[in-house]
Amino acid sequence: MLRLGPKNVRWFVMGDDDTVFVTDNLARVLRKYDHEQMYYTGSLSESHLQNIFFSYGMAYGGGGFAISYPLAKALSKMQDRCIQRYPALYGSDDRMQACMAELGVPLTKELGFHQDKRKDAVKKVIAAMTVGKDVSSLFTDVLNCMQTENLELKKLVYLYLINYAKSQPDLAILAVNTFVKDSQDPNPLIRALAVRTMGCIRVDKITEYLCDPLQKCLKDDDPYVRKTAAVCVAKLFDINAELVEDRGFLEALKDLISDNNPMVVANAVAALAEIQDKSASPIFEINSVTLTKLLTALNECTEWGQVFILDSLSRYKAADPREAENIVERVTPRLQHANCAVVLSAVKMILQQMELITSTDVIRNLCKKMAPPLVTLLSAEPEIQYVALRNINLIVQKRPTILAHEIKVFFCKYNDPIYVKMEKLEIMIKLASDRNIDQVLLEFKEYATEVDVDFVRKAVRAIGRCAIKLERAAERCISVLLELIKIKVNYVVQEAIIVIKDIFRRYPNTYESIIATLCESLDTLDEPEAKASMIWIIGEYAERIDNADELLESFLENFPEEPAQVQLQLLTATVKLFLKKPTEGPQQMIQVVLNNATVETDNPDLRDRAYIYWRLLSTDPEAAKDVVLAEKPVITDDSNQLEPSLLDELLANISTLSSVYHKPPEAFVTRLKTTVQKTEDEDYVEGTETETSGNPVVGAAPAAAAPAPVAVPDLLGDLMGPDDAAIVPVDDYTTQSGPPLPVVLPASSGQGLQICAQLTRQDGQVFYNMLLENNSQSVLDGFMIQFNKNLFGLAAAEPLQVQPLQPGASARTMLPMVLSQNMSTNSVLQVAVKNNQQPVWYFTDKIVLHALFSEDGRMERGTFLETWRSLPDSNEVLKEFPGITITSIESTLDLLAASNMFFIAKRKNGNQDVLYLSAKAPKGVPFLIELTAMVGQPGLKCAVKTPTPEIAPLFFESLELLLKP
């Protein structure tokens, strides 16, 4: 070809007869190289064996290769002699490489430079990455594919970078120039893609390089680029909030609210709202000017843009009722939207503004307008129905008139999933009234004959709740319950007895005539709650039941084998019978029961109550009557179970996970706002020595606040940031207080890997404090961790970040933990740790309960006493610690306060000190603690009272860990 003297030739491209060239791509690739220099460029074989057999410096004809004109000219002068020297070489590509070697021109590798092979290769890498394979070793090779005009390939490379930039931060910075170049590309899609990816690469070294391109993109001519840049500001704020404020990005974001493109406005609002959630200072405040702009953009946004704007507007408080009415009028059309999220966001917005509207006519009209869209949500898929029902449950507690006339839409269908049926039952109870109770009872009666046992129980209990709620309908509810009892289905009968017991408590001395019917089912009772309910009824109305002693005696036959709930109720009912009928039969029964409850039982609650009754009866029977037979307060309707303040908070979070869980966001979301702990002086004041039976004695002097734990210096930087590796060399971790971490995986069991770990709490966050030591002869990297289901749903909040461990090296990490909904009855931590060089290691660790105690666990003295009295005696658990010695009350209280166990009061009991403390476990479970000890003498007695006594052993383990020397 060269001898023919072609003109304007820059490159010669060779390939096999089956090689397919994509000429546009070929031209783009060759344009990168100087055609006036000697270049030999192409790709290796896809076969590893071929490359080994021939050479890794050779371009194959199957993939095609190119040589520049100057190289071709030099090659033409020696090609014939070169081929003669290597007659055994097979194939032109093999011979060509031999000649190139003589000329000293190396191969410039360009993977699939004329085809889409690079894209296919990167796709395979991404596929492997997606299923969890470690392909980080290909980081440099994938990075080389960034400089392409193929948008699909560029997206794949960016996806790879986002995933591995954190583990390869030094290499990731090499991509910055390409990012900056792409942010100035003529194609707006590429500009937006570059800024979006830079925001997703959560590496501190890259953030400063992101600022200039981001500033340009926020003012870009293309709205797609601007809306992408708006979201990127929120991502950058999450990485470096100070940088965002210093560079003026927040002001630029606020300016975008005035943008003429509604999607840009929506993204700016979404970004500002997210930034506000993470900032302790006011960032996004809506005024009347901003309000007008957002309402204007609302009509032109996409559906998700409307959700962002509506959610932000729901935080706005109108200046007066007139403004609130105007806002609602602009938002009301959104109720007709096809997207359920838009509808719920509009409902939330309207409900918030209705608080300020004073006109009853306007409120009545708004309630009528909100009913149809809420009803329409119930015709969607079951999953959407469930979310809608959970939100409606909150709405009808606040505004029952909205759906008061739509109760029929909540009637259960035969093919509804059980979770939908259960929610519908709850709402039907809340909407039940004297006008519709007959319809509701017919439905409940029908549900009580279905096959799903849990649903049937819920339906029967719903009838009882309606009776408690509606006094005028109580008799009709009882009639339905009696009809169900006559069906003789065991679990229906037992559930009916349970709810009738509650009806008796709500309406005492009103419906005793049905007791005879209930007594006919005594022999079929086998559930503890049903037995206890029936026994309570017999004891409460013993004077009106002729054979009450015989009925109770039938239960007493198996007294030692009965559950504690039944035993306690039997004890009280027998005492009531004796006080109401002090004849020979009841007297013998009470002696048998008291003997069994005091001598032949290991249950301290039962034994203590029996002793109290025994002393009351033996010293003053009249006083016993005043105590045991005292008039009891009637129970109240529990259909509106939420406190008003909590309900208002949940209504402000309609259409979010909070409204589905019926919990405030802080109960299940880790907030990243910085908290500052203050240390206060503490004065411990002794209380009086006056005791009250069954309740802790709280001193008359005010109990001062316990000292907050002194904050540990932040050696790890922004520990709450999700991107910090949180790794500290062991030698530098000098401020770690307390004993060394316990060994959970010894080196002998981990092939040289030793792990020490323990749950800990720092700045209001639970961490898994880990020390990893590499005693093997090889480098260990790629660490990952997994926690099995456990009692509190403890799980890792982010991946385990541990740098490669050299032989003999060690590293310490604080792994943030979250309390998920994935729980089991497992009271230990079962942990799996793996790395790239070893098998998966499994070990167990204790759940250190005091690490889970929250900072808001302090109780007022009155609340402490009230809570102690409200909890049954069966919820009190005792334990003695003979190996613990209290040397100083003050230092002990300081130590416990540092673990969020707060001092309430102190009193003297002889020569012993009695301390009362409170704590709060996850899900708001209170722990009421009584410690009794003599200063300087061995021995500590602890009594703890809590709604969940089954986790008391964990508390005792934690207490021993803290106080035992």
Automatic annotation (TrEMBL):
Subunit of clathrin-associated adaptor protein complex that plays a role in protein sorting in the late-Golgi/trans-Golgi network (TGN) and/or endosomes. The AP complexes mediate both the recruitment of clathrin to membranes and the recognition of sorting signals within the cytosolic tails of transmembrane cargo molecules. Residues 680-689 have a biased composition (Acidic residues). SMART domains: Alpha_adaptinC2 (SM00809), B2-adapt-app_C (SM01020). GO terms for biological process: protein transport. Adaptor protein complexes are heterotetramers composed of two large adaptins (beta-type subunit and alpha-type or delta-type or epsilon-type or gamma-type subunit), a medium adaptin (mu-type subunit) and a small adaptin (sigma-type subunit). Keywords: Cytoplasmic vesicle, Golgi apparatus, Membrane, Protein transport, Transport. It comes from Eruca vesicaria subsp. sativa (Garden rocket). PANTHER family: ADAPTOR COMPLEX SUBUNIT BETA FAMILY MEMBER. Belongs to the adaptor complexes large subunit family. Residues 737-844 form the Clathrin adaptor alpha/beta/gamma-adaptin appendage Ig-like subdomain domain. This is Beta-adaptin-like protein. It is a peripheral membrane protein.
